[in-house]
């Protein structure tokens, strides 16, 4: 991962559309790297935007940056937010009609050179840009929650997105020390989401079948694959597990069990009878999750892995 740098000058003015969980986390990330906090604008229609940002955003930031929160521009107007920006990053509702209208408005109101990024978790740029005149400007920049901690950005252009826009987007994120990954083609849920939802599906199946409880399943993951996958993904991990023969040897040895697990995998659907059980157990086990503890743990894990790879 590249060494992050502070960004100064008029060439970077960022407008964030949406002040939800992802929007504020992105605000924290950008505030960490912008030399001038007044070059960051947050747009949201919520009536308590000022008090909400002043209260919640500092919880995502180191103490030395708290004083800069007051310098961020806040507005309920799309036109005001994007009028002189160089980047528009949208994290609004996962609603195609909303996004389609928003990008048509942004194209009309923002400078023609501004880069346009959607943080959607599944709506393709090609669909969102349907009402735009110049569809080459929009692409998906999908963060993994919480983006002010986790370095991944999935870059997912449409077939019409300009290669120059993609290149500038990749360069920006690398410049501030993040990990942009350019997907070769669009696919529902992208890659990180598909992996996460596949694991969640099997986890729900195991709880629903009374093999384990919600809390037990989490503990199993936290003491096995969690630490292992923080260092290496499934291919590298299982390749190492196969010894000198690598992944091929591993699957040659345990392939029948692997296939049996795949054949017996969970088949659960949203709205199914599992929901009452899983939701109740999750609420009983965790209640309101301490996001500060989550962020500290994620930072420490990332730091530990970086140090290990330097050794």
TrEMBL record:
It holds the Pfam family 3HCDH_N. One of its GO terms (molecular function) is NAD+ binding. Keywords: Oxidoreductase. Residues 189-243 form the 3-hydroxyacyl-CoA dehydrogenase C-terminal domain. GO terms for biological process: fatty acid metabolic process. Residues 14-184 form the 3-hydroxyacyl-CoA dehydrogenase NAD binding domain. SUPFAM superfamilies: 6-phosphogluconate dehydrogenase C-terminal domain-like, NAD(P)-binding Rossmann-fold domains. Belongs to the 3-hydroxyacyl-CoA dehydrogenase family. This is 3-hydroxyacyl-CoA dehydrogenase.
């Amino acid at each position: 991962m590249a060494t992050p740098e502070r960004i100064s000058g008029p060439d970077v003015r960022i407008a964030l559309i949406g002040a939800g969980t992802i929007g504020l986390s992105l605000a924290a990330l950008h505030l960490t790297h912008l030399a001038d906090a007044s070059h960051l604008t947050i747009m949201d229609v919520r009536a308590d935007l000022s008090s909400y940002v002043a209260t919640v955003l500092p919880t995502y930031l180191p103490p030395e940056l708290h004083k800069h929160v007051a310098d961020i521009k806040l507005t309920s107007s799309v036109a005001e937010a994007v009028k002189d920006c160089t980047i528009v990053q949208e994290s609004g509702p996962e609603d195609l009609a909303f996004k389609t209208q928003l990008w048509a408005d942004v194209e009309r109101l923002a400078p023609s050179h501004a880069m346009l990024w959607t943080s959607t978790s599944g709506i393709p740029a090609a669909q969102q840009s349907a009402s735009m005149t110049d569809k080459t400007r929009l692409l998906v920049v999908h963060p993994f929650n919480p983006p002010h901690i986790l370095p991944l950005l999935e870059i997912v252009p449409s077939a019409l997105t300009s290669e120059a826009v993609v290149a500038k987007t990749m360069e920006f994120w690398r410049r501030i020390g993040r990990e942009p990954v350019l997907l070769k083609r669009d696919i529902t849920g992208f890659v990180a989401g598909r992996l996460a939802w596949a694991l969640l599906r099997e986890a729900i199946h195991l709880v629903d079948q009374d093999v384990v409880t919600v809390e037990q399943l989490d503990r199993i993951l936290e003491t096995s694959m969690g630490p292992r996958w923080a260092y290496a993904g499934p291919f590298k991990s299982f390749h190492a597990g196969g010894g000198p023969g690598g992944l091929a040897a591993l699957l040659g040895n345990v392939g029948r069990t692997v296939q049996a697990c795949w054949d017996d995998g969970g088949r659960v659907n949203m709205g199914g009878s599992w929901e009452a059980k899983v939701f109740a157990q999750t609420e009983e086990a965790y209640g309101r999750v301490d996001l500060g503890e989550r962020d500290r743990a994620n930072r420490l894990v990332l730091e530990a892995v970086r140090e290990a790879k330097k050794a």
